[in-house]
Write a structure and sequence with these properties.
The complex is a heterodimer of chains A (255) and B (75). Chain A is an alpha/beta fold and 255 residues long. Chain A has eleven helices and eight strands. Chain A has helices at 3-6, 32-46, 65-68, 81-91, 103-109, 111-119, 160-163, 169-174, 190-208, 223-226, 230-244; strands spanning 12-14, 53-57, 72-75, 96-102, 125-130, 179-186, 213-219, 248-252. The chains are: A alpha/beta (255), B alpha+beta (75).
């Protein structure tokens, strides 16, 4: 059978999610954000929540998330996405409310909002992309940057005596009584992408069913900030980041 | 026993040439174009060995720009 005979609508097994629109994403080649955008769009479509989802966009690389996924979005001030999500969810308790944040937004400037929204047990889902660097501003050190990693602001590598220790904020979130589901996933391999999709779906279901705050941390890569090719960045992430940030569920109160 | 046979289409203008699909493909079907670029100047991915494709969708799953569509039949 010829290849052109296989390419028919009834044989299609995978295509771009319906809710991901045609605008070209501004992300660098190989950026993990694109994969996670795809997963968020797929999960919202599969759950049939196209008209009942409210996303809160952060400040950071994902600041234009509202341009790519066709659901309702609010753009928050830097780090304040969980506070805005609190308002959106309290005013619209039947809707899916999720934030989409990077590590600079969630774990640095927004730490107070993140921790208190989770501690209050707000019924929101937080998608947290951790690539251990400030990507948008040119690769500066973030709180999540690993020890010894060279960035624009730590040219000799992160020194814990000077710059402090890498912040494992998901472990912190897991200790709060308000969170119901805290997990850490990655999207560097096809199998990992499938797992991450399941985690996102679970978090969204928790938001809809008002079970508490869910945090899905996704270990991302930043090939531009790390100065590597996308494939090298994936290998580096697997080799180094998983030591400090192991993959798996940190807390799951919902069965 | 029926064997899977697949085919992929790549939206070359959306592709950014990140090479992740080429690495993810278990049957080495894909490669970046060495001598051609798309309208934004990227060496886009293209199918070099269509007969090898098994329609596993690994390339499409890891594609950050959602430019790959996958088709599959059992023969």
């Amino acid at each position: 059978m010829e290849t052109k005979d296989i390419i028919t609508p009834e044989n299609k097994v995978y295509s771009a999610p319906r809710l991901l629109n045609d605008s070209t994403m501004h992300y660098c080649p190989g950026c993990s954000h694109g994969v996670v955008h795809k997963l968020v769009a797929e999960v919202i479509d599969e759950m049939g929540l196209e008209h009942n989802a409210i996303g809160i966009a952060p400040v950071g690389c994902a600041v234009f998330a509202y341009k790519y996924i066709d659901v309702d979005w609010i753009e928050a001030a830097h780090g304040r996405a969980p506070a805005l999500a609190t308002a959106a969810k309290r005013l619209n308790p039947d809707r899916l409310v999720f934030t989409y944040q990077g590590d600079g937004d969630f774990a640095a400037i927004g730490t107070a909002e993140s921790i208190h929204a989770a501690n209050r047990g707000e019924n929101i889902a937080i998608i947290f992309i951790n690539n251990g660097i400030y990507g948008m501003t040119g690769g500066q050190m973030a709180p999540t940057t690993l020890e010894g990693v060279k960035t624009a602001t730590t040219p000799y590598g992160r020194n814990v005596e000077l710059n402090g220790y890498p912040l494992d904020i998901s472990r912190l979130m897991a200790q709060l009584d308000g969170t119901c589901y805290v997990t850490r996933q990655s999207v560097h391999k096809p199998a990992a992408v499938r797992q991450a999709k399941k985690a996102i779906r679970k978090a969204f279901e928790n938001s809809i069913n008002r079970r508490g705050c869910s945090v899905v941390e996704i270990l991302g890569t930043c090939s531009s900030g790390w100065k590597m090719t996308p494939h090298q960045a994936n290998l580096w992430m697997e080799e180094h980041m998983k030591e400090k940030y192991p993959i798996g569920d940190l807390k799951n109160n919902v069965e | 026993m029926p064997k899977p046979k697949g085919a992929v289409t790549i939206n070359k203008e959306r592709c950014k040439g990140c090479d992740l699909c080429v690495v993810a493909c278990p049957t080495d079907c894909l490669q970046l174009q060495k001598n051609d670029v798309n309208n934004r100047g990227y060496h886009y991915a293209s199918v070099i060995a269509p007969d090898n494709c098994i329609g596993c969708a690994s390339c499409a799953l890891v594609c950050p720009d959602a430019c790959i569509e996958v088709y599959k039949i059992m023969i």
